[in-house]
Structure formats: structure tokens, C-alpha cells
Design brief:
single chain; about 90 residues; mainly alpha; elongated
Amino acid sequence: MDDAYQDIAAGRLDAVLANEATSYAFLHSDPGKAYKFVGERLVNDKIFGVGVGIALRKTDTDLRDKLNAALKRILADGTYEAINKKYFPFSIY
């Protein structure tokens, strides 16, 4: 994405397809201030699939289970929302 942002800022591209979380920092930088999201918001399940992922080895089932449990806890107790609001005006999950 860094290359895409450099190319659009330099005028070598007319558009970039990216999500809010990926583009947030660029759109709030000096080179990105001239750009904005346009058109209909593309929901992840229409193009990229549903959900978010963390890459693990298939054999790391114990780690996978611990990560899934931790994510469920922070979503349930409001920790995720508090952290997310600190950095983004939208949910990245």
C-alpha cells in the first residue's frame, strides 16, 4: 500500500482500492489530505471475505485457541472498543 499511496500522490494513479483502516494514516498525512473515499463503501464480505485474520502455523492450535479466547474476552468486556476508539473513528474489526 505504501507504493500505491506514493503513486497516487505523485499522480501516477487515478484511484486506489483500500479499506478504511489501511488508508486512515495516509488520508491524514500531508500527501493524503487531497484525497478521500468516494463511491459506495465496499463491505469486506463482498470483495475480500468475511472477518479478520492472524496468521499462525496449522500446528499452533494451542496458540490459536488462546488468541481466540482473548479476542472474545476483549470484545465482551469493552476493552476492544476502548482501544479502537483511541486510534480510529470507525471499527476495524
